[in-house]
Amino acid sequence: MSLPQTLWRAQAEFQKIPTSMKGKGSQQAVMSTSLRVSPSIHGYHFDTASRKKAVGNIFENVDQESLQRLFKNSGDKKAEERAKIIFTIDQDLEEKTRALMALKRRTKDKLFQFLKLRKYSIQVH
C-alpha cells in the first residue's frame, strides 16, 4: 500500500469519528500525521549490510585479561574464576555453560546463607 493510499484510509477512518469526539465547539481536531511508519512504506530498506555478522562464540577475539577486567568492572566478585572457565580450552560449550551456571548457583547459595545467618543473628539479640 502506498503512502497516499495509507493517508486516504486514515482520513476516511478519521471522518467516521463522531463530531463530539473530534473537538470542542467549532474547532475540528486536526488529523495526526503520526502514522505507523516503516521504511518499506516509503520504499526504503533497513541497511543491514553494515551491521556486524553474528558469531557463535562472542569471546572469540577477546583475551583473558580483558575479559577479567570486563567482569570486574561490572561488579563480578568472581571475575577471575569466570574468565578461566570461559578460556578453558579442553571444555566444550555445554561443559562451560554448566560450569558458569554452577558458579552462579554457588554465589547465590552463599548470598542466601549470609542473609539467613544475618536474620538469625538479629533474632537472637
Record the SSE blueprint.
Blueprint: H1 3-15, H2 19-22, H3 64-73, H4 79-87, H5 93-124
Helix pairs in contact: 3-4
Protein name: Transcriptional and immune response regulator
Domain Arginine vasopressin-induced protein 1/transcriptional and immune response regulator: 31-104
InterPro entries: Avpi1/C8orf4_dom, Tcim
Give your account of this protein's structure.
The protein is mostly helical. The protein has two domains: about 1-40, no CATH class; about 65-125. The chain is about 55% helix and about 0% strand. The protein is built from five helices and no strands. It has helices at about 5-15, 20, 65-75, 80-85, 95-125. Helix 3 packs antiparallel against helix 4. The longest helix is centred in the C-terminal third of the chain and has 32 residues, at about 95-125. The protein is flat, with a radius of gyration of 29 Å. The mean pLDDT is about 70. This is Transcriptional and immune response regulator. GO terms for molecular function: Notch binding. InterPro entries: Avpi1/C8orf4_dom, Tcim.
Helix content, binned percent: 40-55%
What gross morphology would you assign?
flat
Q: Tell me the major beta sheet.
A: none
Q: What's the tally of helices? A: 5
The domain count comes to: 2
Percent strand? under 5%
Structural class: mainly alpha
Output the radius of gyration: 29 Å
Q: Helices and strands, in N-to-C order?
A: HHHHH
Give the rounded overall mean pLDDT. Answer: 68
How far apart the termini lie comes to: 74 Å
- Report the uncertain regions: none
**Number of distinct beta strands:** 0
Protein name: Transcriptional and immune response regulator
Pfam families: TC1
GO molecular function: Notch binding
